[in-house]
Amino acid sequence: MIAAPHEEYRRARRRKVIGAVAVTDAMTDQVIGKLGNISETGMLLIASAPLAEDALYQFTFRLDEGRDAEAIVEVGAHLLWIGAASAPGQSWAGFRFITMPEAHLDALRAWIDAPGAQFA
Asked: Least enclosed by CB within 10 Å: which of 36, 44, 75, 80?
């Protein structure tokens, strides 16, 4: 497992997520929203479930790697901020990754750097 350095989490390139990538709370096995953008140190979540401010979460999501392959990513994340979205029942939430298995980080980095990526 790795821990993302606090001072670097906002400097990483953030890849826009095209399409719906569902994010699941690993503790409840419930989909709580979808990715808006992601970096190797954090993510913007479009949440469709209530979230607790300043809380820690364990998430899983699948990134399409093309060629009918997917990478499953598991992360421990800290909710840094939350704000209302324009759609009823949704909110924007910013997370910083705290822990991630090294193999999942490698898969995430490869997905972020893949050809055709768009950055926020």
From this structure: 80
In a domain, 117, yes or no: no
Closest CA to 89 of 51, 56, 119: 51
Task: State how far the Cα of 81 lies from the Cα of 32, in Å rounded to an integer.
Answer: 16
Q: Which domain holds residue 101?
A: 6-112
CATH number, domain containing residue 32 = 2.40.10.220
Number of structural domains (the chain) is 1
Q: What percent of the chain has pLDDT over 90?
A: 67
Q: Could you report the per-residue pLDDT of 34-87, keeping only the tens digit for each? A: 999 999 999 999 999 999 999 999 999 999 866 566 889 999 999 999 999 888
Sign of the alpha-carbon torsion through 65, 114, 21, 73: positive
pTM: 0.86
Residue 69 region by backbone torsions, left for phi larger than 0, else alpha for psi between -120 and 50, else beta: beta
Distance of CA 2 to the CA centre of its chain: 16
Q: Is residue 25 part of a domain?
A: yes
